[in-house]
Every structure is written in C-alpha cells, then in structure tokens.
Write a structure and sequence with these properties.
The protein is about 35% helix and about 25% strand. By secondary structure, it is α+β, with helices and mostly antiparallel strands. It folds into three domains: about 100 residues, Rossmann fold (3-Layer(aba) Sandwich); about 60 residues, Dna Ligase, domain 1, CATH 3.30.1490.20; about 210 residues, 2-Layer Sandwich (D-amino Acid Aminotransferase, Chain A, domain 1).
Length: about 400
Amino acid sequence: MFVIYATPFFIQNTMGLLESFTHLDGIRLGVISQEPQEVLPAELRRRFAGHWRVHDALSFDQLLWAASELSKRHGPIQRLVAANEQIQLPLAKVRDRLDIPGMSASAVENFRDKGRMKDIFAEHGIPCARHCRAVSEDDAWSFVQEVGFPICVKPVDGAAAQSTYRVESSRSLRELLASRPATAEAPLQLEEFLVGQENSFESVTLGGVSIWHSWTRYHPTPLDVMRNPWIQWRIVLPREVDDSEFEEIRGYGPQALKALGMTTGLSHMEWFRRSDGRVAIGEVGARPPGAQITTMMNRAHEMDIDRAWAKLMIFDEFHPPKERKYAVGNAFLRGLGGSRVKAVHGIEKVFRELDGHITDWRIPQLGQPAAISYEGEGFIIVRHPETAQVDEMLQFIINNVRVELV
C-alpha cells in the first residue's frame, strides 16, 4: 500500500508523525516536502519509499506534480495526508484530481474559510461569534456599528492566532485597514470579540461519526498571549473528560464537525465559555492539534496518539483509550525584550520540587533565538491524578521560571 505524507518543513511534530508512519505494517511511505530531506536522520530517511522536494509545498500545481511523479515510480497512491493546517486545501484538491480517498476539497474549504465556517454554524444552529467577511472598508465599519468594539480581525484562512488582532477603537481599525485593506481578493474576517474561558475540543471522527473526544483549557487565551509577549501561559488537560460542566460542547462539537463535512481524522476545535455561561465555538481545524496538546494526550492516557492518528488515516482504524489516568498541564516558557536567550532562572528549583511529576520539557538554551510563535522558547509538562494538583504545579512553574532575553 503506497501512501504519501506531505509537509512544508520537518518541524519537531512532523518528525514524530513520520516515525509513526514509517513503522506501520503494510505500507510504503512517500514524502513530499519543501525542506530538503537531508535535514532528517539518515535512519529515518532510509525507511522512505520515496521523496519529492518542491519549491512551494502550499502550491496545488507543485503538490500535484510531486504526487504524480511519486506515483509513476511507486504505484497508485492509496492515501495522501498531512497535519499542517495551511497545506490541507491544496492537498485535498490533489486528492480530488487523482481520485485518492480522503476528505474532499469542498469539505476542507469549510474548515479553512472561517467566514464560510461560521455561516454553516449559523445554518445549523451551532453557537459562534457574530461575524462578517469584509471585502471593503464599508463592510468593516458596518460590522462595528452592529457589534461595537472590541472586535477580532484575522485572515479568512488564518490558523494558530497568526495575523489575528484585537481592535479596540476606530483609530486602531483605520490603521489596520490602511496597512491591510479588505478587498474581494483578500477579504478580512471580522468577529465579535468573545470574552470568557477559552478551551479546545479534540475529536476523533471515523466515517463521519465522532467516536472519541478530549478537551483542554487555556490560561489565558492565545490572543491575549500574542498581545502580551511576557505572559508564560499554560494549557491544562483535566482528568475529568466527561464532567457535566462540559456537556454542551460534547453535543455541539460533533454537530459542528458533521455540519462542516468531517469524514475521518483527528480535529482541533477552539471554543469559549462566555462570562454568562453560554458556549460559542471559535474555529475548527481538520488536523491534529498543536501546542504540545498531542503530547499531553499521550501522557494523560499513556498512549501514542501520533501512531493512533497514522493508523486512523491509513487503515480507518482507531481504538479509544479505556480511561484517562492523569490530568496533564503544560507551562510555556517565554522571555521578553530581546533577540536571544541570555539566561534561564529557576529551572533547578522547579525540577527539584516537582521531581516525579515532570514528563516532558524543552528548556531554553543559552544563545537560542527568541521564538516567533506564541509557544515561546520552551515548555515544561507535568501530570498528576488530580487536576487541582496540576493547576498548582503549573502556577509554581510560571512563578519561579524566568527566561531572560538580550
């Protein structure tokens, strides 16, 4: 069985996924990438059936060319998959063109176009923020008159809070529209700014049916983190996966996925508990979560979610874990005010006091460049059978660790 995994770059998460695919029985793995495969360990590269490098991994034409050439050499393609958000749509178009099983481009478009996504939610009675697809300044000002400030402004195909802004005044909106005009060719997604607790909802869907779920909560929200680079934020994956407090999202989550056309895969949904208690779904990605959430899922259930996702995507097979054994938390270590790491303070104390509860970490290294993403320069993951204890440990970490940039 010949399958292809496509990725722009070989980042840390991609390395783990590639390892999982190469160890599946009964498949030959082809890889398409923008980055040269020589950056990978030779042992991993030897397990590839083939590799094709492209100049732009987000280009439909180049992905089609690469897939076609690999197919000529290795046979018909049974699966063509990726975990990267931005590559999902061009890859789906290649699947459609070559008649490869998997989610269609029209369904993937529902996930990538955030305005289209929220229109679908509205049609199906799924709660979400009020929104507007602005193709002109008039559209933007009309929307502000309807909902007031603050508003959230982002690209219609944004991901991971990239190029996302909280706009709080008329002056700020004028400045944003001057630097990034709203046009028919490059529309902007304007949304009511949701206030409350932000969470995620991860779901495994098989043949259009949601068969397993998990969830996390963010402290604070990712957008607040993007606006405040000094915040060492955290994510908690509670042990209480089926707590009655989250009954609503366990209903709305699968409804939203079905409405969008989710077929088979692991999805990542961001949702809010408003200050008045109401639920509102932010957006959904038809791909595995980032921000080390898959690592947290592994530690909570003592499973290998990368391998489970690979088997799901290739063989339509998933065996849900029987129980969640632990609560897990992740503290992201972030510095402020410089371009490189000068020092990291408090690490020894944290490892001494939390010995036995720390499962994974990436400690910022001296001289390391400052991070460009909201995940920061490093992280520490902890676990405990009690969620309250995980909350306390995360607070202890962020109170004691300080990343100094210069």
